[in-house]
Known about the structure:
The complex is a heterodimer. Helix content of chain A is about 40%, strand content about 10%. By secondary structure, chain A is α+β, with helices and mostly antiparallel strands. Chain A folds into 2 domains: about 35-90, Orthogonal Bundle (3-methyladenine DNA Glycosylase II, Chain A, domain 3); about 100-275, Alpha-Beta Plaits (2-Layer Sandwich). Chain A has a two-stranded antiparallel sheet. In chain A, strand 6 (about 235-240) and strand 7 (about 245) form a beta hairpin. The longest helix of chain A has 29 residues, at about 275-305. The radius of gyration of chain A is 30 Å and the shape is elongated. The relative contact order of chain A is 0.09. The model of chain A has no long low-confidence stretch (mean pLDDT about 90). Chain B is an alpha/beta fold. In chain B, helix 4 (about 185-195) packs across helix 5. The interface of A and B includes residues 118, 121, 135 and 136 of A.
Amino acid sequence: MTNTIIWTVVILTALGLVLSLVLYWIARKFKVEEDPRIDDIEKTLPGANCGGCGFAGCRAFADAAVKAGNLDANYCPVGGAEVMKKVAVILGCEVKEAAPMVAVVRCNGTCDARPRINTYEGERSCKVKAALYGGDTGCLFGCLGCGDCVAACQFGALSMNPATGLPSVDESKCTACGKCVAACPKCIIELRSKGPRGMREYVSCTNKDKGPVARKSCSSACIGCGICEKTCQHGAITVADNVAYIDFTKCKLCRECEAVCPTGAIHGVNFPKELDKEAVKKRIADRKAKAAATVQPEAKKEAENV
Amino acid sequence: MSKLTFSIGGIHPADSKIARERKIEVLPLPDRVYVSMFQHLGAMAKPVVAVGDAVKAGQIIAEPGGFISAYIHSPVSGTVRSIGPRKDLAGFMQMHIEIEVQGDEWAEGIDLTTDLVTSVPEDRDFILDRIKMNGVVGLGGATFPTHVKLNPPPGKVAECLILNGAECEPYLTSDYRILLERTDEIVVGAAIMQKVLGGCRCVIGIEENKPEAIAAVRASVARLGYPSMEVAVLKKRYPQGGEKQLIDAVMHRQVKSGGLPIDVGAVVQNVATSLAVYEAVQKNKPLVTNVLTVTGDVLAPDRQHNYLFRIGVPLSFIAQYAGGVPEDAVKIVSGGPMMGKAIANLDATTVKGSSSILYLGGKTSRKEEGPCIRCGRCADACPMGLEPFLLKSLYRAGDVPALEQNAAQDCIECGCCQYSCPSYIPLLDNIRMAKGQVMAVIRARNAKK
């Protein structure tokens, strides 16, 4: 009995010693040299593995950054500038400053503005709903309201607002990873520059129908009238396919477009003061009168010469 | 003779054929018709008329946009007012030709008499050409171009032409009415298709709940003297009229996954298609009319109708003519309650395949989805032997390879699974999406080869 126990212990110990030597030899012989910076960078990154950077996960991001030796093709939208600076220190290179972005829902077809003309009874998924039919309102372009974007968001930044039937973005949580943009079958959500102190202007509509059609289906639709385009002093607004678009790289946040929009499709958010539409309209009128006054004398001269 | 049926799955919804005794009435012409360019399976038709052109009824206004596509004819005489996108019944934009109706003048060469012409032309190519040029498509639901279906690829031989008069969908009575009122024409149409397919036998399948139609067709076949044609009485069971189910019932053969009916020697055509073939070949009349049922559980029996309508007439016009939309209608469906599509836009227009305007009350509304209780009723009901609960879960998980392994592409979208689900899970919505994804993968793979 005692003999058996002794022999078992001896054999197992000997076996363990021999195998550990074999393993040690294999580990030395087949060692994979990996840049330690990959581990360092991965630790620095937020670790959400959201894929917002375009890579399969944080490890893949780190791998690509180390291989490239610079950060030209890499930007972590979740970590933002802070994390990117740390990554740049590890890599010993410069980081390009990128403006912080935020997801913007470009539809303001609330329950009041956009009457439902039928009721959807199928699967609660925007993707399924969009494939089955045009939607339960007259607008073919607007939010379907089933919340695919909410389900796609890994940071809890999106929620459906029961009052409006539209998703709302919690700016403090949004990391601009772009998952919601990909999830929306109607391509309503866009990543836009967050703007100074969060202030930004955007056209909250993507309806490409002609004005009267768009207006009929939704009272707050962009009707493509082009007043905003004419009013904008900075050339930031273009109207294409009956819908206006504000280029956030050119927008100077003067809010004139918002004041002149006849349907309220242009939204300004996080401005410290409420927009005084009348005052802005007066300012525009004054500017036009001034411009007319400066043009007129020249025109008179020309007329005299003729 | 014993009654025939398919071997697995199926359900027994109440047949609710309330409009069965209503004779076919001719619908008057509206002021304007909107002819869709997307009335068939395959490529969109290309308009060949311009705005301002005068057209006559039966004149070609659009030509096929590809091999699987069909000619479209003007259903009325008048002037083309516009060509452009318009919302279809699902609310999607489709190309339509708008024609203002002026008088009712038909194009030359169309025989409008109602005399029965029984002598079938000898030349096969002539018959196929007539069918193609007159824009005949399958009227059983899928609107597959008939001339393509009647022309099997080389090496494949049709042994049996099955004429589908099952009309297994509840409520619908248009096929039943034409079987009673246009019996001889349907039988001659079948004889024409037999000729095209090289003289195969023909079985006309009719469900047991239509005894008058069975008697009428039997009498007609005996009177006209077609020895290779017989009537098969089918059990009342949904989806008896499904192509693969009908082949199983009549020929006891199964079409393999990814295969076509012609692989087992079968060609299935709807009775309405047979009537269209008869008119196209014997009368040179294009497919511009069809029969549609206005029915529903909230519609009084005396307000139910079967109409012979011109294709392109707006649904709202038919609804108005039939006495307006009943107040307690919760859902309006085009097609049967099982496979039909809810109409999101009543201003949409009728197409070649339109078979009904169905008003349903609150009873049929969807209830809140519950969790799957693993009862397996959906798998029992599936006539294709699929596992709908599994396909739904796989779709929601986004596992396309597993969906293909579990044959999501074989789904015939009959809706038996969703009908039988005690938890009201929208199984079919999920499987339809899954089917789309798998078909895209298969197409991409075939394109690579």
